[in-house]
Amino acid sequence: MRKIISFMHISLDGFVAGPNGEMNWIKVDEEIFDHVGKRISETETALYGRVTYQMMENYWPNAGKKPNASKHDIEHSKWYNNAQKVVLSKTMKDTNLTNTTIISDNLSNRINEIKQQAGKEILLFGSPTATHALIQQNLIDGYWLFVNPIILGQGIPLFVNIKDKIKLKLLTTQQFTSGVTELNYIVDRQ
Hints:
Structural class: alpha/beta
């Protein structure tokens, strides 16, 4: 069965965005882009909430074609255009979206159907609202977190309204020169 891995940048105090959704505190550089790019290139399915999907769709399809496109923009744009995209949204309609499936109801059943399909892990990019919904349904299998060296004090938390403890097993860690630390966890279902 395929696993859903939540990929998030997070503050030391557990926020994924500021109070108004701001993410200008997130540290990214070539070292992180290269590291993340390797893992992303090994998967073919991206999972998004509506807001994150629309943000990605406004940038990535043509980012690699711009005259001043970075190596990261070229590589990620190519990956994005070929990836299967799954979007959780109650308002979007599936109107000829390339490589895109919209899930608006029966979340648990629809996600489990996708997890049963052949393929590699499914990366859930950002999307705090979608992440919260999937956590409530016990559908996330791992967390790939990039802890940024900042305390926000307030904002949009990664974990809210957790009914039962979620036991995690640490797989890997890596520290980057920017001070960001990667934590790669799998949910321990035993």
